[in-house]
Fold this protein.
Amino acid sequence: MDRLYFIQLLDELQKVMCENREYLIDLDRVVGDGDLGLTMSDGFLAAYHAVKDSPETDIGKMLYTAGKAMSTAVPSTMGTLMASGLMQTGKVLKGKTEIEHEDIATFFMAYEEGVMTRGKAKVGEKTFLDGLDPAVEAMKASFAAGETLSVVADKAVNAAQEGYENTATMLAVHGRAATRGEASRSLKDPGAAVALLMMRAFQKTV
């Protein structure tokens, strides 16, 4: 697998975010300012367009370019977090022109690291991480068990779905949702929904 796989992944990411723009807007209206759908669709579309015709063979450099394009297109809080995740994947995969299937887990691990570092959030604080982290852990376990990429993707989606649903038991620590205090606990986190959509996009590339 080479850079073309990640161009395909970015294409699927922008498609799933565009298809679910209104869904994310509706989710975000409850706990935020309602712009999440626009931020995610515009941001991932910018990332994809920045590299779709790129001759760059270094996967890391290409992903970093995509992340920079996203940060410019959507300089909001969530946009910056998602762009930081993408740029971190570029740093981790820099120098690679070919990847093994297991490197997909490395990609998402790096994405999580980038978001966590920039946002200063932790798993369990009702954020994007609570959708992504279970998926990453499921991927790692599935790859370690020698399972096929299709099984890895299915398990990642299921784990992200469970993580997203589980945010309805958590107290919000960050953002506008945190101002609701205990009333925030029963609400599902829109950021975790984004993580679930990302796993569905990954599943489509398989």
